[in-house]
Design a protein that fits this description.
Largest sheet: none
CATH architecture of the domain at 72-183: Orthogonal Bundle
CATH topology of the domain at 72-183: Cytochrome Bc1 Complex, Chain D, domain 2
Number of strands: 0
Bound molecules: heme C
Radius of gyration: 23 Å
CATH superfamily of the domain at 72-183: Cytochrome c-like domain
CATH class of the domain at 72-183: Mainly Alpha
Protein backbone atom coordinates (compact mmCIF):
# COMPACT_ATOMS: atom_id res chain seq x y z
CA UNK A 1 0.00 0.00 0.00
CA UNK A 2 1.39 3.44 -0.94
CA UNK A 3 1.43 6.11 1.80
CA UNK A 4 -1.90 7.89 1.67
CA UNK A 5 -3.84 4.85 0.37
CA UNK A 6 -6.64 3.64 2.61
CA UNK A 7 -7.34 -0.05 3.18
CA UNK A 8 -10.34 -1.52 1.33
CA UNK A 9 -13.61 -0.67 3.06
CA UNK A 10 -12.06 2.21 4.99
CA UNK A 11 -14.88 4.48 6.13
CA UNK A 12 -12.96 7.71 6.58
CA UNK A 13 -11.35 9.19 9.68
CA UNK A 14 -14.70 10.21 11.16
CA UNK A 15 -16.63 7.07 10.24
CA UNK A 16 -19.24 6.73 7.53
CA UNK A 17 -21.23 9.89 8.38
CA UNK A 18 -18.76 12.47 7.15
CA UNK A 19 -16.69 10.88 4.44
CA UNK A 20 -18.06 7.57 3.22
CA UNK A 21 -20.31 8.77 0.36
CA UNK A 22 -17.56 10.91 -1.20
CA UNK A 23 -17.10 10.17 -4.90
CA UNK A 24 -14.35 11.74 -6.99
CA UNK A 25 -15.45 15.25 -7.92
CA UNK A 26 -18.33 15.32 -5.43
CA UNK A 27 -18.09 19.03 -4.57
CA UNK A 28 -20.91 19.32 -2.01
CA UNK A 29 -19.31 16.72 0.24
CA UNK A 30 -15.97 18.49 -0.05
CA UNK A 31 -17.58 21.83 0.80
CA UNK A 32 -19.39 20.38 3.74
CA UNK A 33 -16.14 18.91 5.01
CA UNK A 34 -14.41 22.24 4.58
CA UNK A 35 -17.16 24.06 6.52
CA UNK A 36 -16.93 21.53 9.37
CA UNK A 37 -13.15 21.94 9.48
CA UNK A 38 -13.41 25.77 9.42
CA UNK A 39 -16.02 25.79 12.19
CA UNK A 40 -14.03 23.41 14.36
CA UNK A 41 -10.91 25.51 13.81
CA UNK A 42 -12.60 28.76 14.83
CA UNK A 43 -14.02 27.20 18.01
CA UNK A 44 -10.58 25.84 18.88
CA UNK A 45 -8.97 29.25 18.26
CA UNK A 46 -11.45 31.05 20.53
CA UNK A 47 -11.03 28.48 23.32
CA UNK A 48 -7.24 28.61 23.02
CA UNK A 49 -7.41 32.41 23.05
CA UNK A 50 -9.24 32.41 26.38
CA UNK A 51 -6.98 29.76 27.89
CA UNK A 52 -3.82 31.50 26.71
CA UNK A 53 -4.96 34.88 27.97
CA UNK A 54 -5.94 33.66 31.42
CA UNK A 55 -2.92 31.37 31.73
CA UNK A 56 -0.32 34.01 30.87
CA UNK A 57 1.31 35.62 33.89
CA UNK A 58 0.52 39.13 32.64
CA UNK A 59 -1.49 40.84 29.94
CA UNK A 60 -0.07 42.99 27.18
CA UNK A 61 -0.33 46.01 29.48
CA UNK A 62 2.82 44.73 31.16
CA UNK A 63 3.58 43.72 34.69
CA UNK A 64 3.95 47.34 35.82
CA UNK A 65 0.19 47.81 36.41
CA UNK A 66 -0.57 47.78 40.13
CA UNK A 67 -3.87 48.30 41.93
CA UNK A 68 -4.08 50.47 45.04
CA UNK A 69 -6.84 48.97 47.22
CA UNK A 70 -5.30 50.56 50.34
CA UNK A 71 -5.39 54.13 49.02
CA UNK A 72 -8.71 55.66 50.19
CA UNK A 73 -8.68 58.47 47.58
CA UNK A 74 -8.18 55.99 44.71
CA UNK A 75 -10.86 53.63 46.10
CA UNK A 76 -13.40 56.46 46.49
CA UNK A 77 -12.79 57.59 42.91
CA UNK A 78 -12.99 53.97 41.71
CA UNK A 79 -16.31 53.36 43.47
CA UNK A 80 -17.90 56.34 41.71
CA UNK A 81 -16.63 55.07 38.35
CA UNK A 82 -17.83 51.54 39.13
CA UNK A 83 -21.37 52.72 39.96
CA UNK A 84 -21.51 54.85 36.79
CA UNK A 85 -19.88 52.47 34.29
CA UNK A 86 -19.90 48.87 35.55
CA UNK A 87 -22.73 48.32 38.08
CA UNK A 88 -25.44 48.10 35.39
CA UNK A 89 -24.01 44.71 34.36
CA UNK A 90 -21.74 43.54 37.19
CA UNK A 91 -24.23 44.61 39.91
CA UNK A 92 -24.23 47.31 42.61
CA UNK A 93 -23.12 44.68 45.14
CA UNK A 94 -20.60 43.28 42.57
CA UNK A 95 -22.84 40.21 42.43
CA UNK A 96 -22.87 39.80 38.64
CA UNK A 97 -25.84 38.69 36.55
CA UNK A 98 -27.99 35.64 37.47
CA UNK A 99 -26.69 32.28 36.18
CA UNK A 100 -23.50 33.99 35.08
CA UNK A 101 -21.81 30.71 34.12
CA UNK A 102 -24.60 29.88 31.63
CA UNK A 103 -24.08 31.35 28.15
CA UNK A 104 -27.06 33.19 26.59
CA UNK A 105 -28.65 31.49 23.55
CA UNK A 106 -26.61 34.01 21.50
CA UNK A 107 -23.44 32.35 22.84
CA UNK A 108 -22.47 35.41 24.87
CA UNK A 109 -21.67 35.22 28.57
CA UNK A 110 -23.60 37.12 31.25
CA UNK A 111 -21.52 39.51 33.37
CA UNK A 112 -19.65 37.60 36.10
CA UNK A 113 -19.57 38.84 39.72
CA UNK A 114 -16.54 40.84 40.87
CA UNK A 115 -16.96 39.75 44.50
CA UNK A 116 -15.20 36.79 46.13
CA UNK A 117 -17.63 34.31 44.48
CA UNK A 118 -16.43 35.21 40.96
CA UNK A 119 -13.08 34.62 39.30
CA UNK A 120 -11.94 38.23 38.94
CA UNK A 121 -9.43 37.67 41.76
CA UNK A 122 -7.89 34.71 39.87
CA UNK A 123 -6.30 37.14 37.42
CA UNK A 124 -3.34 39.47 37.81
CA UNK A 125 -3.65 43.24 37.98
CA UNK A 126 -2.23 43.44 34.46
CA UNK A 127 -4.79 40.98 33.04
CA UNK A 128 -7.71 42.82 34.68
CA UNK A 129 -6.39 46.12 33.37
CA UNK A 130 -6.00 44.65 29.87
CA UNK A 131 -9.53 43.19 29.64
CA UNK A 132 -11.07 46.41 31.01
CA UNK A 133 -9.11 48.67 28.68
CA UNK A 134 -9.36 46.68 25.45
CA UNK A 135 -12.52 44.62 26.18
CA UNK A 136 -12.97 40.83 25.94
CA UNK A 137 -13.45 40.86 22.13
CA UNK A 138 -10.05 42.46 21.44
CA UNK A 139 -8.28 40.44 24.14
CA UNK A 140 -9.61 37.08 22.93
CA UNK A 141 -9.65 37.90 19.22
CA UNK A 142 -11.17 35.88 16.40
CA UNK A 143 -14.93 36.35 16.17
CA UNK A 144 -15.41 36.33 19.94
CA UNK A 145 -18.45 38.41 20.91
CA UNK A 146 -18.96 40.01 24.30
CA UNK A 147 -21.51 42.40 25.80
CA UNK A 148 -18.63 44.31 27.39
CA UNK A 149 -16.92 47.03 25.42
CA UNK A 150 -13.34 48.14 25.99
CA UNK A 151 -13.11 51.22 28.22
CA UNK A 152 -9.91 52.57 26.65
CA UNK A 153 -11.82 55.40 24.94
CA UNK A 154 -14.02 56.11 27.98
CA UNK A 155 -11.70 55.95 31.00
CA UNK A 156 -8.06 57.01 31.43
CA UNK A 157 -5.51 54.39 32.53
CA UNK A 158 -5.60 55.87 36.06
CA UNK A 159 -9.40 55.63 36.14
CA UNK A 160 -9.24 51.97 35.07
CA UNK A 161 -6.72 51.31 37.87
CA UNK A 162 -9.02 53.18 40.30
CA UNK A 163 -12.13 51.14 39.44
CA UNK A 164 -10.21 47.85 39.69
CA UNK A 165 -8.66 49.06 42.99
CA UNK A 166 -12.19 49.66 44.33
CA UNK A 167 -13.18 46.12 43.29
CA UNK A 168 -10.14 44.66 45.07
CA UNK A 169 -10.79 46.78 48.18
CA UNK A 170 -14.13 44.97 48.67
CA UNK A 171 -12.59 41.47 48.85
CA UNK A 172 -12.11 39.73 52.22
CA UNK A 173 -8.56 39.74 53.60
CA UNK A 174 -7.77 36.13 52.61
CA UNK A 175 -8.88 36.69 48.99
CA UNK A 176 -6.80 39.86 48.84
CA UNK A 177 -3.77 37.97 50.14
CA UNK A 178 -4.31 35.24 47.52
CA UNK A 179 -4.53 37.90 44.85
CA UNK A 180 -1.26 39.47 46.04
CA UNK A 181 0.37 36.03 45.65
CA UNK A 182 -1.07 35.62 42.14
CA UNK A 183 0.41 39.01 41.24
CA UNK A 184 3.81 38.00 42.50
CA UNK A 185 6.52 40.38 43.72
CA UNK A 186 6.49 43.96 42.43
CA UNK A 187 8.79 44.44 39.47
C1 LIG B 1 -22.77 45.80 29.19
C2 LIG B 1 -22.41 44.98 30.33
C3 LIG B 1 -21.07 45.21 30.99
C4 LIG B 1 -20.56 46.40 31.51
C5 LIG B 1 -21.22 47.77 31.55
C6 LIG B 1 -19.25 46.05 32.05
N1 LIG B 1 -18.98 44.71 31.86
FE1 LIG B 1 -17.32 43.72 32.48
N2 LIG B 1 -18.03 42.00 31.68
C7 LIG B 1 -19.25 41.86 31.04
C8 LIG B 1 -19.37 40.51 30.55
C9 LIG B 1 -20.57 39.95 29.79
C10 LIG B 1 -18.18 39.84 30.89
C11 LIG B 1 -17.80 38.38 30.58
C12 LIG B 1 -16.70 38.37 29.54
C13 LIG B 1 -17.13 37.77 28.22
O1 LIG B 1 -18.02 38.35 27.56
O2 LIG B 1 -16.56 36.76 27.84
C14 LIG B 1 -17.36 40.81 31.61
C15 LIG B 1 -16.11 40.53 32.14
C16 LIG B 1 -15.33 41.41 32.86
C17 LIG B 1 -14.04 41.09 33.43
C18 LIG B 1 -13.34 39.73 33.39
C19 LIG B 1 -13.72 39.04 34.68
C20 LIG B 1 -13.37 37.58 34.78
O3 LIG B 1 -13.18 37.09 35.88
O4 LIG B 1 -13.33 36.90 33.74
C21 LIG B 1 -13.60 42.24 34.05
C22 LIG B 1 -12.30 42.44 34.82
C23 LIG B 1 -14.61 43.26 33.85
N3 LIG B 1 -15.65 42.71 33.14
C24 LIG B 1 -14.53 44.55 34.35
C25 LIG B 1 -15.47 45.55 34.07
C26 LIG B 1 -15.32 46.91 34.54
C27 LIG B 1 -14.18 47.41 35.40
C28 LIG B 1 -16.41 47.60 34.05
C29 LIG B 1 -16.71 49.07 34.21
C30 LIG B 1 -15.65 49.98 33.86
C31 LIG B 1 -17.21 46.64 33.29
N4 LIG B 1 -16.62 45.42 33.34
C32 LIG B 1 -18.42 46.97 32.65
C33 LIG B 1 -20.22 42.82 30.89
C34 LIG B 1 -20.08 44.17 31.23
Amino acid sequence: MKPGDYPPGFQGLHGPGLTAPARPGDKSIMNRKRIVIAMTASVVIVVLGWVAWWALPSGSAGASVRLHPDDPAVVTQGKAIYMAQCASCHGEQLQGQPDWRQRHPSGRLPAPPHDASGHTWHHTDAQLFDVTKRGPEAVIGGNYKSDMQGYGGVLTDDEIIAVLSFIKSTWPADIRRNHDLINGPRS
